[in-house]
Structures are given as structure tokens and as C-alpha cells.
Amino acid sequence: MAELNSLAGLSPAELEAHWMPFTGNRHFKSDPRLFVAAEGMHYTTADGRSVLDAFSGLWCSNLGHGRKEIADAVSSQLTGLDYSPAFQFGHPTAFKLAKRLADMAPGDLNRVFFCNSGSEAADTALKIARAYWRAKGRPEKIRLVGRAQGYHGVNFGGISVGGMVGNRKTFGPALDVDHLPHTLLPENAFSRGLPEHGGEAMANRLLDIINLQGAENIAAVMVEPFAGSAGVILPPKGYLKKLRELCSAHDILLIFDEVITGFGRTGSAFAAQEFEVQPDIITTAKGITNGAIPMGAVFASEDIYATFMQGPEHIPELAHGYTYSAHPVACAAAMATLDIYENEKLFDRVNEMAPYFEEALHSLKGVAHVVDIRNYGLAGAIQLQPRDGEPGRRAMEVVLEAYRRGILLRWTGDTIAVAPPFIIERNQITQIAETLRDILQDTQ
Ligand code: PXG
């Protein structure tokens, strides 16, 4: 009976039927971890335990869970206008949301293209970048530049530009992309906030790629302002500014993938604002609807949009879009989400809590296995020494033990990532750090 309970009544056949994403299916199904409810900062597991969400689901539930305002908005949208064709017809909430997002975005990134996920946002942005140069009469500018350890989702453009080799190598030929080196430098270990060393030098590596391929062939550079999935790899001071400078000097579009950094994670609406660097395109998803309904959005500059607005007016200027682009229900969820960010001043709250979060994470310096700690805003990572011959195992064990002790974290390689909802309280931050300290001390 107890076992049935902890499986939420699922039969073995039901457990088997679901091919889970980015999960060791056999490992998971031998000891499932099931959530059956969520409210505020906590999940409830199938065996009735309360688990503190220290990862905002998967970097998306920035407002915490069970927000009634979002549920109400979704519900009334569903009964009012459940679906409206995405092509050739529109519905008002899409336009209202786009304007509201444009007002939040840095500089003149005023044109918003909707999709349903971060992966779709990435591929949309890459296609816009290539089509932009073609529309400008420079069709040879098609090459794309990414960065080692970058993550831009799982579609073909994203895995090509992305620099997580494990996500690409089993899928055959990807696009032919050049990659900048990542910015995780040993001399920056245990930096608080942006690291001091290597910013300009790492950005200047773009010159090697330009020399190799010719700027006249390069459409865009795509990076995350800080790399999230790879374990919160921060840009050293000056790095993003230098990248911007080089891209501008060589007529290369700069795309920021803000799927994680967008909507307040850094303490500003977008990392572009926080780091004072203006990209040409921003991709977003996740926090745009608090994770409650799938949605992504790509922000393009006035120049990019204007460049497309030529040719016969009845012909689509961009041959791209999804059945569920600007889905009415997602738009309603996003509007309600933006209301909450605003009404509860939650980006300010990130700034308020960030120093405390930083202090708590860095208090783990010197604890067994810890070789680096990184943080910015309400994002942090604790990197462990891998166990000999078993890379990734130690961090996995720590995260699974944390789950048993009532805290949801995430591991990537041997790094433990922390990214709590913005409503987290100080005592909960302390609870995360102290639980990790205890577990690390007990871990082989
Ligand atoms: N770009 C970035 C920067 C991301 O972080 C995506 C694109 C893809 O988004 P979708 O919605 O297609 O999954 C992401 C997703 C982790 C983790 O553990 C990170 C992501 C997803 C799941 C887990 O850090 N990022």
C-alpha cells in the first residue's frame, strides 16, 4: 500500500509508457520521484512530503507555484477564446502582450515573435538572423557562432550553436558552426558575482573565428549572458561589452539567449539591462508565463523588423511560425505573470535577496568536495570535485539526497545548481545551504 501511495497509484505499465525527457528512464522508474501538487515555495511528493523548490521547477516558476491570478486568467481565456488561428488572423491579447514585453525590453527590441519554448525561440532567432542578411542583400552571411558549454535547447539550430557536445553527438550532422571557448577560468574560482579575469581576452577569441571564416560570411553570434544549463558560468567583467563591440565592428548580429536570465533572474528584467549590453535579438521562454503554460518569445530590433518589411504586402515577410504562436491561453498566462512581477516588485526582491543568497552559497567554501562556487542574482552553482572514474555521480547523489531531505535542486555534470523562486525567504536560503553542507560532509 505504501508503495502504491508513493507511485501516486501508477501501474508499472503506466510508468513504462512515458518516455521521459533528459532522464535516465530505467534509473528513474526503479525509484520514481513524483510530484502531485505545488504551492508557493513547495512541491508535495506522491508520498506526501513537502519539498522546498530551490530550482523554480526548471528555472521557470519564478513567482513560486499555484498562483491564482495565472490560473484565473488561463481559465477565463479558455472559456472566452480557447484558440485563434496564429497565421493571417489575430487576437487582441497577443498584441497587448507584445507591446508590454517591448516596453520591458532593452533599447529598441520592440518587435516580438511568439513561439512555445526556449528551443523554438533559439531556432527562430537563428533563422531571423540568416534571413535578415539575405533581406539586406548579403545572402552569404549565413555562418553562426556559438560558445562551448552553451545551451540553446534541443532543436537542430540550437544544438548546433549550443556547445554541450553530449546533446549533439548522437544526432548526426548538425549545422556547421564555430564556437567561442567558454569562460569558466580557474583563476576566477569562488568569484562573487561577475569574475574579474579574462573578459576581454575571452571575447577577443571571436577575432580568431572572424579571421578563419571571414566576417562577410558570419550572420550572428549567439550566447547566453550567463550559461545556465552548464552550471551558471558567468561572463567575466568586460566580456559581453567586448563581444558587442566586435560584433558591431564586423556587421555580425549579437543574439542573447535569455531563456534563463530573462524575467528577473539577474535582478533586472533582462540580463542585457543588468550587464548594460544591447543585443540585436533576445530569446526568452520559461519565466514569461512562470512555467504555467508553454511559451517563448523572440525580441528583435526595429532595424531587423524594418528590414523584413519589403516586397508585396500580402506575402508573409518571414516564412516561419507555429500553430501555437501567441496562443491565447499562453498570452493570458503571460499577462497575469507580468502583473505579478510588477505588483510584487519581484525583480527588486531578487536584488534584495541576492547578497544573502551569495553569502549562504559561499559559506560552503572549504566544505568537502567543493572546488568552485558561482553566483549572480538568484542563480548559483556549487561545483564539486568529480569522484574518480565516475564523473557526474557525486553531484547526482547529493541532489537525490537533498530531495530525500526535502529540497529540490538540479545537477549538471558535477555541479549543483540553485535557482529559487524570487519569493524565497532568508530562512529558506539558509535551509538550502545548511542541508547542502550536511550532505556534502556525509558524501564520499
Ligand atoms: N535556451 C536556454 C538558455 C535554456 O536554458 C533553452 C534554451 C531551451 O528551452 P526549452 O523551453 O525548449 O527547454 C533553455 C532550457 C537546467 C535546465 O538544468 C535548463 C533548461 C531546461 C531544463 C533544465 O539547467 N534550459
Automatic annotation (TrEMBL):
The keyword Transferase applies. SUPFAM superfamilies: PLP-dependent transferases. It comes from the Bacteria. GO terms for molecular function: transaminase activity. The keyword S-adenosyl-L-methionine does not apply. Keywords: Aminotransferase, Pyridoxal phosphate, Transferase. Transmembrane segments: none annotated. Its cofactor is pyridoxal 5'-phosphate. Belongs to the class-III pyridoxal-phosphate-dependent aminotransferase family. This is Aspartate aminotransferase family protein. It comes from Microbulbifer salipaludis.
